[in-house]
Amino acid sequence: MKLRKVFAVCSAIFMTTASIAGCGGSGQVSGGDSGTSTDKSTAAGGKTEGKEEVITLNFMGWEASPLETAAVEQGIAIFEKEHPNIKVNYTPGLAGNEYNAKLLASAASNSMPDVMFMMSNAYRQFVSKGALLELTDKFSKDFPLDDFIDSSKTIMSIDGKVYGISSCTVSPILYYNKDVFDKAGLEYPSSDPSKSWTIEEFREVSRKLKTDEIYGCYGLETVANTLAAQIISNNGAIYSSDFKTSAMNSPEVKKVLETIKAIRVEDGSAPDATTLENVGMTVAQMLETGKVAMLIDGSWALQELAASGMNIGMAPLPSYGKVLTTGQAHLHSISANTKYPDQAWEFVKFLSGLDYQGSLVNSGLWMPNRKSMYEPDMLEKWYNKDVHGDDYKNMLDYFKEAVVDPAALQYSSKCSDIITEETKLYFTDAQDIDTTLKNIEKRSNEAIKEALE
Fold it and tell me: Per-residue pLDDT tens for 71-105?
């Protein structure tokens, strides 16, 4: 499916959303704060008779893809039409460490945006600093918590309180190029979780698919996206049950890391990151062109892969015992220091609505985080056969029952970076496995202690 076709689908849904939402929008601004921006007909320091004051909300996020940014901007336009007295100034920026660092600096200087994307692995850190507005009462009134799937519900709730609303859910899954499988005469992996491959079966098929021109697989080493699911599948853990110490220095974790490395080094089935850089292709492009037969990546990759028009298949992750995937996603939060809490809540409600979320789910970028969206009547509203194909429907329970990604529950966003840094040293032969696990344990414990203090 071509990108412009996916974009057209998103646009059509947003147009529908506008017509539906417009029926119930009052356009009234609650609260009495003075605005940073006023209607042009409003005199300085006052209001024109019959005119409500127009305020501006600063909204910050990041650009996961141009299509997501376009969808956010279309959503803002709809919201502003529903609420003519609220303007939204959206600033997409860099993601990851740079984004968290910028937000932390703005929190320290009391200059945070009114509304923001909040990375799940930083959510608890910002709450501990008192940087986010508590939304529990407002949330409970407008959103039934039990409608959220367990992973999203667990991420949002801190000691029974809510400081941000989960935007969606995303999970790592297995993608594969059907044409490569057909040429090799191999059976496709099943999309039925009860029939999913073990890691040994995945490893064997990767070896069979490997040729001088084709790598059997890629993605097991991408720590941020896939490692937690592999470790939990093998009865291991990233953190202790209270998330105050690292739990990675264990035989279960050691086996997973050694298996990942063996698939690349011993079997020669997977390229390393340097190889990809030299080829000059993204992992998605490697899969699309048949240079990689199987790709383990986040569910958000479906948007780009579907847009390429490739003959794509999807399946659950290979398991070490337990068949599972992890679930997490960013949240929409409000600054504790916003001058416009009521107006900011109206905007967050819109961002958390089923229509807005549904448009991005329809494109393949997000997955629904509400149980009701997996019901047959709601499924028809966002499911797109050109994007999701037939495999996706077989994995709906697999997504709904995803275990929460441990990174979303820890106390320091530095921990994820530490795990990435140390495992990279192991995967590139710069240090041995025992040193790697000891370093992760020591550095993570120090980072968590610093965050708790």
Answer: 889 999 999 999 999 999 999 988 777 898 899 89
- Letter for the amino acid at 399? F
Give the Cα separation of 119 and 165 in Å (integer). Answer: 11
pLDDT score of 20:
30
Alpha helix stretches (DSSP H) within 185-321: 199-209, 228-233, 251-265, 273-279, 283-288, 301-308
Q: Span 434-442, mean pLDDT?
A: 98
Say if residue 401's pLDDT is above 90: yes
Task: Give the Cα separation of 226 and 230 in Å (integer).
Answer: 7
Higher pLDDT, 184 or 68: 184
Which residue do the tokens 């019901």 mark?
375
Token pair belonging to 413: 């966003």
Let me know the angle formed at the C-alpha of 239 by 237 and 244, rounded to the nearest 5 degrees: 160
- Place 51 in a pLDDT band, splitting at 50, 70 and 90: low
Residue 337 C-alpha from the chain's centroid: 26
Phi-psi region of 110 (alpha: psi -120 to 50; beta: other; left: phi over 0): left
Phi, psi at residue 239, to the nearest 5°? Answer: -130, 165
Is the predicted pLDDT of residue 34 greater than 70, yes or no? no
Question: How does strand 331-334 pair with strand 115-118?
Answer: antiparallel
d(CA 40, CA 56): 13
Query: 108: exposed, middle or buried (C-beta count within 10 Å: 0-12, 13-18, 19+)?
Result: exposed
Tokens describing residue 406 = 């441990």
* Secondary structure element (H or E) that encloses residue 165, with its range: strand 164-166
Helices (H) and strands (E) in the chain, counts: 21, 13
CB-based contact 227:405 (threshold 8 Å): no
**What is the pLDDT of the chain when averaged over all its residues?**
87
Terminal C-alpha separation, the chain: 50
Give the gyration radius of the chain's Cα atoms.
23
Sign of dihedral through CA atoms 219, 172, 254, 211? negative
Beta bridge partners of 169: 367
The distance of Cα 290 from the centroid of its chain, to the nearest Å, equals: 26
**Please, how many CA atoms are within 13 Å of residue 74, restricted to the half-sphere of its CB?**
23
